[in-house]
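Severity: low
Component: inverse-folding endpoint
Summary: output formatting inconsistent between runs
Steps to reproduce: submit the following structure tokens with default settings.
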């Protein structure tokens, strides 16, 4: 990839996505589940760029959404309503109503209070709604605490006895049609054990529900498949699928999975330019034009992303790659033995396709970066760099 050319053409900081890689990732996962009916519902939150959603939609992907904004994006990008799922612990009334009016596949319910809310809204609109219940199987996924969601102390889902009760209530309700069962124990999972254990627990529950004549048709295993950032050993899609399939014997449910990171994580890089080097007796800093507002993962989770200086080899004194934001927590990488750099050198931050742009902000009044897609060797802009005027647009008329 000619990063110099891309930086010249689109400036920095810049997100670059390899659409061929995204296709390959999607196809690998779809293929792994081929023994059964499956729906890959891409987790829009990982990267919600419309062109990227369109690409996935064309491949046959559905969408797992956590706000009505994501539902609207998915529809706009051409993903059909019957492949869209709406999850999340705090849905507003208007979001629930709009999802119903748009006749999406199902809403995943995360609490008893939400259950009653959804029922009431369905009744008010006169639209019976398909639902799933997110079950919390109480499994430790062994990942970062901020992205682990399957333990009873987490805010997500309901415990098994509550789930059983909700399914029975739904069965009796003319306004709710229980069609799915859902769990998601965490993100960036690299250990198959907890996934299999959770799947077993939830599959047993689904079988119980079938015996009660509750027609659960979708077994929704959430997302969470991890990728390699440093030296992790990611789970192979085939092993992931086999672990889940092995818990489903005797049932005929369609598998739904909601991968985000696996689809886009390794298909994206973040390109930033060196502004200065600064050496103190204690430390070496490489100050770049990208920052925590563009790529928050290192600051928020102490996440590791590989970095490299484009076109330069060798090692130098370990350096922190830091941005211009006024926070000591503003760093992209720490203590990396990078070669000496000069003003204008390019630094590549790898595996930045998931939760990169999606978690960006305008902190420090920094316009969000542009996004570029590479497909079959050709590059094209898929989101313009924000301008100063765009950033202040919602404020100026109150001046
Ligand atoms: N389904 C549900 C219900 C989820 O909560 C999530 C992610 C996914 C699917 C997709 O998970 P994935 O396949 O991408 O692991 N910002 C964090 C990750 C937060 C994940 C939140 N939920 C990060 O940068 O690591």
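Observed output (run 2 of 3):
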């Amino acid at each position: 990839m000619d990063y110099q050319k891309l930086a010249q053409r689109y400036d920095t900081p810049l997100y670059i996505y390899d659409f061929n890689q995204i296709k390959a990732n999607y196809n690998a996962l779809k293929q792994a589940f081929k023994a059964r009916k499956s729906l890959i519902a891409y987790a829009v939150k990982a990267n919600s760029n419309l062109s990227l959603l369109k690409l996935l939609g064309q491949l046959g992907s559905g969408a797992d959404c956590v706000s009505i904004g994501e539902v609207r994006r998915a529809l706009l990008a051409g993903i059909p309503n019957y492949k869209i799922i709406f999850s999340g612990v705090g849905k507003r009334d208007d979001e629930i109503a709009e999802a119903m009016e748009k006749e999406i596949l199902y809403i995943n319910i995360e609490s008893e209070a939400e259950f009653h809310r959804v029922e009431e809204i369905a009744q008010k609109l006169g639209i019976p709604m398909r639902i799933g219940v997110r079950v919390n199987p109480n499994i430790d996924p062994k990942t970062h605490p901020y992205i682990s969601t399957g333990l009873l102390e987490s805010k997500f889902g309901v415990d098994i006895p509550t789930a059983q009760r909700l399914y029975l209530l739904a069965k009796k309700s003319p306004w709710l049609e229980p069609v799915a069962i859902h769990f998601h124990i965490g993100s960036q999972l690299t250990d198959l054990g907890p996934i299999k254990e959770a799947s077993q627990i939830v599959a047993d529950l689904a079988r119980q529900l079938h015996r009660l004549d509750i027609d659960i048709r979708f077994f929704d295993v959430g997302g969470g498949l991890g990728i390699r950032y440093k030296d992790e050993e990611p789970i192979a899609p085939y092993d992931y699928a086999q672990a889940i399939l092995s818990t489903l014997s005797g049932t005929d449910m369609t598998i739904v999975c909601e991968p985000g990171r696996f689809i886009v994580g390794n298909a994206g890089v973040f390109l930033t330019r060196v502004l200065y080097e600064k050496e103190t007796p204690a430390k070496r800093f490489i100050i770049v034009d990208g920052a925590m507002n563009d790529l928050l993962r290192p600051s928020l989770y102490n996440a590791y992303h590989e970095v490299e200086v484009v076109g330069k080899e060798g090692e130098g004194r370990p350096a922190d790659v830091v941005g211009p934001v006024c926070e000591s927590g503003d760093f992209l990488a720490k203590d990396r033995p990078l070669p000496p750099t000069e003003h204008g050198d390019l630094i590549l931050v790898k595996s930045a396709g998931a939760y990169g742009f999606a978690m960006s902000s305008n902190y420090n009044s920094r316009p969000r970066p542009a996004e570029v897609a590479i497909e079959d060797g050709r590059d094209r802009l898929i989101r313009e760099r924000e301008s100063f005027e765009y950033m202040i647009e919602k404020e100026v008329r109150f001046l």
